[in-house]
Amino acid sequence: MELEAALYKYFTYRSFRPLQKEIIETILSGQDTVALLPTGAGKSICFQLPALLMPGLTIVISPLIALMQDQVDSLLRRNIPATYISSTLSHTEVVQRIELLQLQKYKLLYIAPERLQHKKFLILCKQLQVSCIIIDEAHCISEWGHDFRPPYLQIASFIAELPHRPVIAAFTATATKHTLQEITESLKLRSPKIYVASFYRSNLHISVIHTTSFQLQEIAVLLLLKKHQGESGIIYVSTRTAAQNVCEMIKKYLSNQVSVGFYHGELAAQQRQYIQKLFMANKIDVIVATSAFGMGVDKANISFVIHFHFPGSIEAYYQEIGRAGRGGQPAQCYLLFNEKNQDIHETLQSQITSPAAQTHKLQRLEAMLAYTYTKKCRMQMILDYFNEQKSSKCNNCDSCIQPQFAQQPFFSALVSKKQCNEIQALHAWRLQLQKAHALSHYAEVLTDTQLLLAYVIQPNSEADFAKIPGCGRGWKIRWASHFLLKSDKIQV
Ligand code: ADP
């Protein structure tokens, strides 16, 4: 059968995306393969289709249970015989699935790398006809990488125990040249064909917003959420505590405007799944998460990603923003940079014992810092980091299109033109009040921070005003009626 016909038969897609066909042909020809394709490029089809066309079973090694479940569910919806074995299943369920595997009822089996260490699993695989082994999210092999998973290092020795060596293919969305080499060596690939797709995502508008305080970071998030009200987005933070705190902060100020949940690796598995499901089903607009969230998240309508803290590497950053705009629509990626957040990385750094690993981590952090300070095209800088040359500027990042922001007020990079005018109108109103009441400073009416918070909250009750720090009873008696009058006029 022609590959296009098979693609249509199983997946109802009419044509391949760039590199998909070449990768599938290589796997089908029996040659080991490494594919580095950006998030959203369509990696899954590259191994799912060959799995259906080859005799026997394809084992897919995947780092996350949620990821396996998602993929298996979507395959089953297409009537493709696939299953997974994981620690979340009951003993009876595992036994049933093993029996069906022995009866050759499945074409794809998803497992976590830890499963390879179970003796019983090796014995089972020796009885099965394993034609192909897929290593998904293969960058987890890299010991210096941000997603290192030690059991990934055991894959080669597991394969060596099998009676027949299957074809091996590794997939990832994030890898430098060095990581690709680590993948090839660790898996003991034999003359692999390496595919590297362009990392350029023309629909991502990337920008860095420099802030000088934690409070401004919070206000930036609130303004951005107001700008993107009703849209789906992710806010990445670097710590579990921050995930919870930022989520609570959003609930406090924008409870009637944005629905939000938080996600991190220490939550119980059930809770994580619950939040992820709510987000995937558009039941909540925004998820505040650590890097634990997102591997394999295939949600087409994520239109913005905000980094509350800057990540420790460009790899991590590009992978995380890659979750936006997967449906091809334009998407906004905002990195809130506050020098003080370096503490978080220093703490993580100090927890590493190996000097070599420390050096690697430091180098990656330095590249990230250079990225945040650059005046050059940011997309070009990212592509350069991944050894991809892009001769022309992207004309879509803040360096390319908004260099004037350097002279503009902090909030102008965070809001729409209309919102910017509304905030300016509040500024003008504040100055008028200062003059009319002969105040020595406008801050006696509202400080800049209070003004932005007032703009975000649109207070119209006692309780709302009380949310703005410093706007207590005395303030309310003096200024609240002025504010309400003004807000009506400018319809904030
Ligand atoms: P990746 O793993 O590379 O991030 P996925 O494999 O999850 O990407 O694919 C992203 C989306 O694109 C999925 O919804 C998938 O069904 C879809 N897709 C993949 N290949 C094609 C294709 N050839 N034509 C149309 N849609 C495709």
Main beta sheet, described?
A: 7 strands, parallel
Task: Report the portion of residues in β strands.
Answer: 5-15%
Count up the helices. Answer: 20
Shape: elongated
Mean pLDDT: 91
How many beta-strand segments?
13
Helix percentage: 40-55%
Commentary on this structure:
The protein is α/β, with parallel strands linked by helices and 492 residues long. The protein is 45% helix and 13% strand. It has a seven-stranded parallel beta sheet, with helices on both faces. It has a six-stranded parallel beta sheet with strand order 8-13-12-9-11-10, sandwiched between helices. Helix 2 (20-28) runs parallel beside helix 3 (43-53). The model has no long low-confidence stretch (mean pLDDT 91).
Task: Give a brief description.
The protein is an alpha/beta fold. Helices cover 45% and strands 13% of the residues.
Task: Please give the structural blueprint.
Elements (H helix, E strand, L loop, with lengths): L2 H9 L8 H9 L4 E4 L6 H11 L3 E5 L3 H13 L4 E4 L5 H12 L5 E4 L7 H9 L2 E6 L19 H7 L5 E6 L4 H10 L6 E4 L7 E7 L3 H14 L4 E5 L3 H15 L5 E4 L5 H12 L5 E4 L12 E6 L6 H8 L9 E7 L4 H9 L4 H19 L4 H8 L12 H4 L15 H20 L11 H10 L4 H5 L6 H18 L2
Parallel strand pairs: 1-6, 1-7, 2-4, 2-5, 3-4, 5-6, 8-13, 9-11, 9-12, 10-11, 12-13
Helix pairs in contact: 2-3, 9-10, 9-18
The structure holds adenosine-5'-diphosphate.
Note the main attributes of this structure.
single chain; 492 residues; alpha/beta; seven-stranded parallel sheet; six-stranded parallel sheet; 20 helices; elongated; binds adenosine-5'-diphosphate
